[in-house]
Amino acid sequence: MDNTLMVKTQPSLFLPHGAPNLTLTDHVAKRFMQELPRTLENASGQVAKGIVVISAHWQTELPTITTGPDLETIYDFYGFPKDLYSIVYPAKTSPPLIQLVKEIFKKGDYPLMEDSDRGLDHGAWTPLRLIYPDAHIPLVQLSLGAGKNADDHLQLGKILAPLREQGILILGSGSVTHNLSALGPESSNPPGWSKRFDQWISDKLLTHDIPALLDFHRQAPDAQIAHPTDEHLMPLFVALGAGLDAGGINQIHNSFSCGSISMSGFAFAEGELLNNMKLS
Question: pLDDT tens, 167-222?
Fold first, then answer.
């Protein structure tokens, strides 16, 4: 990581990764993410020095980061077009980034394991490939906590928060709604339950109602159908925790895919950082 320039604070983001074939479509969410690098650079005044990505598709008992120098593109899906399996995202990490993350966890008295063999699952490489197709920014993937709840992941995000001040972009990748048994054709209208849950999450974020968000199982409409399992919503809480002290929350994208999958995206950062990050 180049330290010759003054380091600028980076935002924390929650982005959708959608279906694995999003990168082969012309979906509006794909175009939004392709345009995001310019937005991010305009907002922060500097390209990120590194990325910590948290995906719905990696859960471990203890927080774990990838430490291999080259991060293999993992095809953790089946039944999609053959072209999808030929995509290679040439992601690399860097020893300074790994060390920085390890120091942050140590300072927060939080356990951190290392995995030198694991690469990037599609929840990580799908949005990254759209945002940074040449993979020029070093990155690590951080796992979710298996069996951990929303507050656990909010606390995990708070551990990551100081990284933003050191020029590291925090990226949570998941989906505000995720029910694989309720998918429809790409052109189909989102069902009412998906729209209601998506709107509730947006409303609670934009009004900073953190207690309600942490209690989404009981308070959110249609929570059980929106998330039969929780893993796709947990990266939102990590991203929220990483940007919570900044005080600023913007919704930066809203659309739906495959009928019921919310593609909503959110940015968490200081007010000045959010000026150029508006709903797309």
Answer: 999 999 999 999 999 999 888 999 999 999 999 999 999 999 999 999 999 999 99
Place of tokens 């508006």: 278
Angle at 194 between CA 193 and CA 198, to 5 degrees: 115
Tell me if 5 is assigned to some domain.
no
DSSP annotation of 276 reads T
**Domain with 246 in it: what CATH number?**
3.40.830.10
**Tens digits of per-residue pLDDT, 90-140?**
999 999 999 999 999 999 999 999 999 999 999 999 999 999 999 999 999
Number of domains in the chain: 1
